[in-house]
Task: structure prediction
Amino acid sequence: MRPPFSFRHLTFPALTAGFVAVLVGYTSSAAIIFQAAHAAGASELQTGGWLSMLGIAMGLTSLSLSLYYRAPVLTAWSTPGAALLVTSLPGTPIAEAIGVFMFASGLIFLCGVTGLFARLMHYIPQALSAAMLAGILLRFGLDAFGALQLDFPLVGSMCLAYLLCKRYLPRYAIVLTLITGLLVAGVCGEIHFSPQPVTFTLPQFIAPHFTLSTLVGIGIPFFVVTMASQNAPGIATLKAAGYQVPVSPLMSWTGFVSLLLSPFGGFSVCIAAITAAICMGQEVDPDPKKRYWGAACAGFFYLLAGIFGGAIGQLFSALPPALIHTIAGLALLGTIAGSLQRALATEKQREAAVITFLITASGVSLLGVGAAFWGLLGGALAHLIFSLPPGEKE
Result:
């Protein structure tokens, strides 16, 4: 049963969590979107329109799904899918690229309508989902403290502020840590704004063109990578955090929105994992039933980012990388700890969970599919083998 809707659940920590999630999402992978659009032959104006459409699509889906299900359902573009497009699209006419986007989105929508993906996710033990999430987020925790050697005054100040606030003002720890980082970066002259004015870019409609070679050679791999490396971790993140949101409607709606907006450059809308985890921590709200406002606020900021299109990436890029790494890692500390605890809680599943965690954290990529999928597959295989009846004793 869904918890009741209330604007009283909208708090400043939830607003901050939403902003940090969007900040991390854009600064970590917006450059890949630019490269993917360039590989598709999009002009500078069309590229800005693509980012506008993606921001609007993610904003609408995050806001509506989070408020409807009262759960932190955050959507994102497919970063692994975009990386695949960078290497696969050069030489492909832009109309055929749009056809690929529509084809892959149609397959995702079909998975949601038929319930195939939901049935598959139902058989994955929660310990493995939690271990995969911990493996995904480990890099962010390591980068937070690894940034100390890049900018010790900035990162050291943020870490100290986080520890003190976590002790005395735990609900506002991330908020005050971010403010501390901005103040220190400003005083040290590390914030550099671009002289280019912020503008609104209207998305342009591009009629799709379908060819068998691009649909099979690019569309199917794009679909597989998006489902395995983006949607599967996203659903597992919700599951690991204890949110039992129906999977099929999420796949159906995100696939439908992507299908509808693909001709305008909205090449993918998927369930987020890393940025969603930022909106699921205790810092957002001690009550898990009230944390949906964190993802809803992120949806609002995505809408703003969509309105300003490509210029928003330049605004975010004004901040020093050390600040981004640190605030992301500190915001995810609680989620990493909780994921590890749930992954190792059940003794019978502990070894399989560790295998999932290590494969995922290794970052290995096979056949164009990312480590999260292989970690989940490796852990599931180990769990299956460990569950076999023991052999007869001699």
